[in-house]
Design a protein that fits this description.
Order of helices and strands: HHHEHEHEEEEEHEEHEE
Shape: elongated
Number of helices: 7
Structural class: alpha/beta
Strand order of the largest sheet: 2-1-3-6-4
Distance between the termini: 39 Å
Helix content: 25-40%
Radius of gyration: 22 Å
Largest sheet: 5 strands, mixed
Low-confidence stretches: none
Strand content: 15-25%
Number of domains: 2
Number of strands: 11
Length: about 280
C-alpha cells in the first residue's frame, strides 16, 4: 500500500514553534546580558572609557553576512545585530553619539539609529568640528562625520597625541540599496589594541593642489580635500589601504607637481565589505 505523505503542520503548531523560537532568542539575549555583566566586573570598563571595539565589530558583521541565508532580508539582520552590539556596549560604558548633520540631517539620523539604536543618546551638531570637539571633551562618546565631503579640515583636530581618532567607517557592510547608506567616519578614543588598521586615515597638507593632482591621486586612495590658505594649497583627508601606504601617496603627489608640507596619522578603519544586494544571502 502507498503511504500517504504526512499532513502539513497546522497554523497553531507553526505559531507554537515561532513562540518557542522567540522565547529562546529572548533567553539567549538575557544570557548575553549576564555575560556582559561579568565582563564589566572583570574589565572594569566603566573606569577606562569607551567600550567600542571596531576591530571586533567589523569581524562580527563580516561573519554575519557570510553565514546568512534564507528569506529574511540582510538589512533586517544587520540592523538587529547592530542594535544588540551597540546596546550592550552602552551597558558596559554609557556613551552618546554626536552627529554632524551639516551634510544631511535625515541621512545622518538614519545612520545613527540604524547602527546604534535608540537607547544610545543622539546629539546633533551643525558642523563636524563641533561634533569632534564634543567627543574630545567626553570620556567615551562617538562622533559621526560625513566620509565623502567637507567644507573645513575638521580632521586637523585629530592630529595631536591623545586626541580622538577615526576608528571606523560606516556602514560596516556596504551595498547599493543600504537603508543607512551615508558614508560616515566614526571618531572616538579607544585602546590601540581595539583598533583595526586595514585602512589608515592621514591628514596631509599640500601646496600646489589642483584638479590634475587630484586625478593623479584618486586611483590610489579615497581623498577628501578642502582649501588650505596657510599653504596656498589644500588640506587632505586620505584613506589608504595596502603596504607602504603613505609613501606611495606622497610620491604620487610630488610627481604630479604638489609639495607635501605635513602628514599626521588621524585614525584607521576596516576595509569595505561589499555585498550586491540586501535580500537573502544565499
Amino acid at each position: 500500500m502507498t503511504q500517504r505523505p504526512p499532513a502539513p503542520p497546522s497554523l497553531a503548531e507553526l505559531r507554537t514553534e515561532i513562540d518557542r523560537i522567540d522565547e529562546g532568542m529572548h533567553q539567549l539575549l538575557m544570557q548575553r546580558g549576564d555575560i556582559i555583566d561579568r565582563l564589566i566586573q572583570v574589565k572594569q570598563t566603566q573606569e577606562v572609557g569607551s567600550a567600542f571595539r571596531p576591530a571586533r565589530e567589523a569581524d562580527m558583521m563580516r561573519r554575519l553576512v557570510e553565514r546568512h541565508r534564507g528569506i529574511l532580508p540582510l538589512d533586517t539582520v544587520e540592523s538587529i545585530w547592530r542594535v544588540i552590539i551597540s546596546t550592550f556596549t552602552f551597558v558596559q560604558a554609557p556613551f552618546a553619539v554626536h552627529a554632524d548633520v551639516s551634510v544631511s540631517e535625515p541621512a545622518m539620523r538614519d545612520s545613527a539609529r540604524f547602527h546604534f539604536g535608540f537607547t544610545v543618546p543622539y546629539l546633533a551638531h551643525f558642523n563636524p568640528s563641533a561634533a569632534v570637539e564634543a567627543v574630545a571633551r567626553s570620556k567615551g562618546d562617538l562622533a559621526l562625520v560625513s566620509a565623502v565631503s567637507s567644507r573645513t579640515p575638521w580632521w586637523a583636530a585629530l592630529e595631536a597625541e591623545g586626541a580622538p581618532k577615526i576608528i571606523a567607517r560606516l556602514p560596516f557592510v556596504e551595498r547599493a540599496d543600504h537603508p543607512a547608506a551615508l558614508p560616515v567616519f566614526v571618531v572616538s578614543r579607544v585602546a590601540d589594541s581595539a583598533m583595526v588598521t586595514e585602512v589608515e586615515t592621514w591628514s596631509v597638507r599640500v601646496s600646489g593642489w589642483n584638479a590634475e593632482i587630484a586625478r593623479a591621486v584618486s586611483p590610489l586612495a579615497e581623498v577628501v580635500a578642502v582649501p588650505d590658505a596657510a599653504f596656498d594649497g589644500a588640506a587632505l583627508l586620505v584613506s589608504i589601504a595596502g603596504a607602504n601606504r603613505l609613501e606611495k601617496i606622497k610620491l604620487a603627489l610630488i610627481e604630479a607637481g604638489a609639495s607635501v608640507r605635513s602628514t599626521a596619522l588621524v585614525g584607521s578603519h576596516a576595509t569595505r565589505y561589499t555585498v550586491p544586494f540586501s535580500g537573502s544571502a544565499r
